[in-house]
Design goal:
Order of helices and strands of chain A: HHHHHHH
Strand content of chain B: under 5%
Helix content of chain B: 55-70%
Order of helices and strands of chain B: HHHHH
Radius of gyration of chain B: 16 Å
Largest sheet of chain A: none
Shape of chain B: elongated
Largest interface: A-B, 28 and 25 residues
CATH class of chain B: Mainly Alpha
Number of strands of chain B: 0
Number of domains of chain A: 1
CATH class of chain A: Mainly Alpha
Shape of chain A: elongated
CATH superfamily of chain B: Ferritin, core subunit, four-helix bundle
Distance between the termini of chain A: 44 Å
Helix content of chain A: over 70%
CATH topology of chain B: Ferritin
Largest sheet of chain B: none
Oligomer: heterodimer
Radius of gyration of chain A: 17 Å
CATH architecture of chain B: Up-down Bundle
CATH architecture of chain A: Up-down Bundle
CATH topology of chain A: Ferritin
Structural class of chain A: mainly alpha
CATH superfamily of chain A: Ferritin, core subunit, four-helix bundle
Chain lengths: 162, 161
């Protein structure tokens, strides 16, 4: 049976996705000696940590809004919560650190990172329908754009190594 | 691919993604009769998406007054270029070839979810690169439908357990 999520849980998953991403990049930076690749992974980790903070702030904002009478109106705007539970599979089920143990080549780490970034984009596309204000929607769009930029950076690094 | 795509090329790629998806679902339906009805329904939905993208491409070819692609700094185009790179999402490779490695309905459903995820990640960039007039909303609608495919696949996986 698919479990339905509420808006707070959706944001918590988004935070978890970013935490997993940051941990993955920091661990990846430890695994390799090349300074340019280490710096790239550490920069990506910092980026994910900033995203986590943005989602945390949005969740707090949502909590404040939900104390007001507008709650019902917000609930109506939500996308099917079951959908988000299914999309969450991409962002949370495979713990990236666990996968790193069996990955040795830089190219493989880069490919894994690209898939994780795609997972995040997929989840955040769904998350936008949980966001009440257009201002917050823009913030999610900005994060999606940054995840897209990560894919470009990772793909560039991958091409340099093949 | 060194040069950014034009709108025609990007939509052609979207059509190819849908064709690949439909081919995968039809071949998978033949191999796994237990889930064939569901897979054939998904194939038909991908056919409809392909038609939508083809119609959008057709419309774009006739528009001169307003640029159909709104991507002033070229970032969305660069993303699509990276996504279409054979390292990430090789749309030229036939996904039907993946079926040889899949032995159970569960495995085929998981692979299908991955293909849907790839499509959504590509269309997210496509949506950023087209203007509202050129059909941003239609691309958004297709993203939502691909998300629903993930729900359908996920529910089927649970039902098979």
């Amino acid at each position: 049976m698919t479990v339905a999520l509420n808006a707070f849980e959706v944001f918590e998953i988004a935070e978890q996705i970013e935490r997993n991403g940051a941990k993955f990049y920091r661990k990846a930076a430890e695994l390799f000696n090349e300074s340019d690749i280490c710096n790239m992974f550490l920069e990506l980790a910092d980026w994910e940590t900033r995203h986590e903070q943005v989602f945390q702030d949005m969740k707090k904002q949502l909590f404040k809004l939900n104390k007001k009478p507008r709650t019902c109106e917000l609930e109506k705007k939500q996308l099917d919560p079951k959908l988000m539970a299914c999309l969450a599979v991409f962002g949370t089920v495979s713990e990236p650190l666990h996968r790193l143990r069996s990955i040795e080549k830089i190219a493989d780490v880069l490919k894994t990172a690209i898939v994780k970034e795609q997972d995040s984009i997929t989840f955040y596309e769904g998350l936008k329908d949980f966001v009440p204000s257009s201002d917050d929607k823009n913030k999610v769009d900005d994060i999606i754009e940054e995840e897209m930029r990560h894919i470009k950076i990772l793909n560039q690094a991958l091409k340099q190594r093949e | 691919m060194g040069m950014p795509f034009n709108a025609d090329e990007v939509f052609e790629m979207a059509e190819q993604i849908e064709r690949n998806g439909a081919r995968f679902y039809r071949a998978a339906a033949e191999k796994f009769p237990e889930v064939s009805q569901l897979l054939l329904e998904l194939a038909a939905m991908e056919d409809n998406h392909e038609k939508t993208f083809a119609a959008m491409r057709e419309e774009l070819s006739g528009t001169e007054a307003e640029p159909p692609v709104f991507d002033p700094d070229g970032q969305a185009q660069l993303y699509l270029q990276a996504m279409a790179d054979e390292h990430i999402f090789n749309i030229k490779s036939d996904p039907v070839n993946q079926l040889g490695n899949l032995d159970t309905p569960d495995e085929v459903l998981k692979t299908a979810m991955g293909l849907e995820r790839d499509s959504i990640a590509f269309y997210a960039g496509l949506k950023e690169s087209v203007s509202r007039k050129a059909g941003k909303d239609k691309v958004e609608g297709i993203i939502k439908e691909e998300m629903n495919h993930i729900v359908i696949l996920s529910q089927k996986m649970e039902a098979l357990k």
